[in-house]
UniProtKB/TrEMBL annotation:
Species in which this protein is naturally found: Pseudotabrizicola sediminis
Database matches in InterPro entries: 4pyrrol_Mease, 4pyrrol_Methylase_sf, 4pyrrole_Mease_sub1, 4pyrrole_Mease_sub2, rRNA_ssu_MeTfrase_I, RsmI_HTH
Domain Tetrapyrrole methylase: from-to ranges: 25-227
Family of the protein in this entry: Belongs to the methyltransferase superfamily. RsmI family.
Protein name (database record): Ribosomal RNA small subunit methyltransferase I
SUPFAM superfamilies linked to this entry: Tetrapyrrole methylase
Cellular compartment(s): Cytoplasm
């Protein structure tokens, strides 16, 4: 998710504490909209780290200028999916030399539908410290204001752009007993809402959050059918988070449960397969586990 700050003027000159930043890889969350949503700890890290890396160096420079954080002569390394092969060795070399490296994605929390996973994995593989300065996240911000159950949720990322793949993607989520959170393009939101009606039913509660924390923030709540009507014919712009309520647990017949269990046991342990099917079909885990023990294990290829 990208963001454009509404705080165009510099807010204040940030004065970090005198202590040094410990060596290691530090992931820093940046605002998803309002520049004031950055944390003091994030500013401390940006001000004192030996090396800075960013998905978009222009965005990070602008954020630092707003808060009066000087880059000085420190390196600012672009790191994203298109240049990982070149940037990763340079950042790993700095980490192996005992330097502190800060990485910031363009907006929000790194790795949440943003680059950084490869860097984190490489640092962990080398036994190097990996830390995070938590902060803004469109996922959690949307969940907080949605009014949907927050005790259990699944962030599913972006739905596929191709229609057939997107339908399969939604079909796989339909039985998930958790609030679903998706990112979506403003160009596809109407189409996706229409497909959600077909998959989840028009009465399923849902929320569309648009431009969170920004000047034109908008939260639209209702059934999926309500949201289809609300977005019909609109010229939609901005960053969008779609949330869908969990559905009522549907008790499946024994034949359906057995077939699903056999399929799950072909690739999972008895315990894991029983747990997955119990959750998917709203059947007590103990009953499904006993059923799994009584059924023949699928033959495996040698």
């Amino acid at each position: 998710m990208t963001a454009e700050s509404d705080d165009s003027a510099r807010i204040d000159l940030h004065t970090p504490p005198a202590r040094d930043i410990p060596p290691g890889l530090h992931f820093v969350s940046t605002p998803i909209g309002a520049a004031r949503d950055i944390t003091l700890r994030a500013l401390d890290l940006l001000a004192r780290a030996d090396v800075l890396a960013a998905e978009d160096t222009r965005s990070l420079r602008h954020l630092m200028e707003i808060h009066g954080v000087a880059l000085k002569d420190r390196p600012l390394v672009p790191y994203h999916e298109h240049n990982e092969a070149q940037a990763l060795p340079r950042l790993m070399r700095a980490l192996s030399e005992g330097k502190s490296v800060v990485y910031a994605s363009e907006a929000g929390t790194p790795l949440i539908s943003d680059p950084g996973f490869g860097l984190a994995r490489a640092a962990i593989a080398e036994g190097l410290p990996v830390l995070a300065a938590p902060g803004a996240s469109a996922v959690l911000c949307a969940l907080t204001v949605s009014g949907l159950p927050s005790d259990r949720f699944l962030f599913a990322g972006f739905a596929p752009s191709a229609k057939a793949a997107r339908r399969r993607f939604l079909d796989e989520l339909v039985r998930t007993q958790a609030t679903l959170i998706l990112y979506e393009s403003p160009k596809r939101i109407r189409e996706t809402l229409g497909e959600c009606v077909q998959v989840f039913g028009e009465e399923r509660q849902a929320v569309v959050c648009r431009e969170l924390t920004k000047r034109f923030e908008e939260v639209t709540r209702g059934t999926l059918a309500d949201l289809v009507s609300a977005y019909d014919g609109r010229d939609v712009k901005g960053e969008i988070v779609l949330l869908i309520d969990r559905g009522a647990v549907v008790q499946a017949d024994a034949e359906t449960v057995e077939a699903a269990l056999d399929k799950a046991m072909a690739s999972m342990s008895v315990k894991d397969a029983a747990a997955a099917i119990a959750d998917a079909y709203g059947v007590p885990r103990r009953d499904v586990y006993q059923l799994a023990l009584s059924r023949p294990r699928p033959a495996k290829d040698v």
